[in-house]
Design goal:
TIM Barrel, 270 residues, eight-stranded parallel β-barrel, globular, alpha/beta, homodimer
Chain lengths: 270, 270
């Protein structure tokens, strides 16, 4: 999916919500656990309930790999279901991969060709080699970790370099020259709103994938205030706050309501 | 596997060779491609031929994920085969994962419990949260990326910090306090032998997983000279140079010979 298609979807749905499909088997409602493919059954119901309010889904691969072959199968089923029923929706593999060139090339093939996903999250630690293969696909996206929302982002991401910049700032400066605003996004934590403002000054035109609104204490108001740009430029992720809002047989209906609440707040800023 | 068991195996086999099972479907010998599980058939033959000379295997997950469910299944079969036939061998998932705490916890469960692997490679970018869950398993190992052998390791890993250290040096300094020498290893590139000497001064007692000997121009002599410690402290990886040394029906025999050559060189240093 290209930027124009993504932006059009955002304007049509008046939403920049990304729903994180962190569909841990242990946490899905009890009544689904006897299904043949419980994670897929859960995702299907969640997607049907939230698709009117969401522009993107983001399965975190850990929750599928944890179930081995069975989990991987249910991830493939989930992606195929979204692709068929909601072809306008942007799908991000939250994989946080990063490997040397020939290996990254294979990951890119797996995620972009075999699975037909739109985007993959990547760790920048090993440098350009690890990102380049993902930038060679048309209308596909590399989503680089920049400043994450976890507390230990201070350990390395926020270290001060000898040139006065912080590491995550240097990651932005260096990596923005590898691709362009139509194939590169950045992961930014909503819990660091002041930093978001500075990040926006450094990369005014890139899309940001923002984590930590609600669940980790980040404020949608502040994210919108500092993060929006002329093409929206934001995908704000919510995972547990939407998909695990209710654990009864009503779970999908409640997830839909939570997604709608977020969409209605987002509509005010668009 | 604990340090003593690993060290004993090293002494018994007079080898610190780790064979990288980068078993890309496209590259395996043509005559295997009609097998039901061609990657597993390839790995099985490679393992049988190289096990007398190797103390560890390291499947890079990219090459399995590239084949989706089928690839994952063949990875599981490979690990089960090694575990059953060669229980003394150390198995590392080259996954380069790194995610927030609850997600890392799940990855740790998947790799250590479900798949019964000994070690997982991890990216340090997001800090301690991402590593901690892997350190909570007895006789299991977190293998952190420190200084990798790819050319773009200069982009970020080698950046100078305001305290005078390079980023990879700070990664070593900080992360060595999270665990201990019995549950933490580091990935170091063999192409940077001078740096290996300095790394050994900073972490005299940790095991290092060294990439890039042969294939990427690193020298085993220099790695041994700078890297060995009282418990050996080295696992030197070779992937393509062993497993793809020959593409005929003789591939396994030739792989065994290549592994033996490396083992014989290693024996001199032990």
């Amino acid at each position: 999916m290209n930027t124009t298609q993504l932006h059009q979807q955002i304007l049509r749905k008046k939403s920049f919500l990304c729903v994180g499909l962190d569909s841990e088997l242990k946490k899905i409602p009890a009544h689904l656990k006897s299904e043949k493919n419980p994670i897929f059954a859960f995702n299907k119901a969640i997607v049907d309930a939230t698709a009117p309010y969401s522009v993107a889904y983001k399965p975190n691969l850990a929750f599928y790999e944890a179930e081995g072959v069975e989990g991987w199968l249910q991830l493939e089923k989930t992606v195929a279901y979204i692709r068929e029923k909601y072809p306008e929706i942007f799908i991000i593999a939250d994989a946080k991969r990063g490997d040397i060139g020939n290996t990254s090339k294979l990951y890119a093939e797996a995620f972009f060709k075999s699975m037909n996903l739109d985007a993959v999250t990547l760790s920048p630690y090993m440098g350009r080699d690890t990102v380049q293969p993902f930038l060679e696909y048309e209308d596909k996206w590399a989503v680089l970790l920049a400043l994450t929302s976890n507390s230990s982002s201070a350990d390395f991401e926020q270290l001060q370099l000898s040139n006065g910049k912080k590491l995550y700032e240097q990651v932005l400066e260096t990596s923005k020259t590898w691709g362009n605003i139509d194939n590169t996004m950045y992961v930014v934590g909503a819990t660091k709103a002041e930093m978001l403002r500075e990040i926006r000054q450094m990369i005014p035109d890139h899309f940001l994938l923002v984590h930590g609104v609600g669940e980790q204490g980040g404020s949608l108001d502040e994210v919108a205030k500092y993060g929006l740009n002329s093409r929206c430029g934001l995908l704000v992720n919510s995972s547990r706050g939407v998909i695990f809002a209710d654990s009864s047989e009503n779970f999908a209906k409640v997830a839909g309501e939570k997604a709608q609440e977020l969409q209605q707040q987002m509509a005010k800023y668009l």
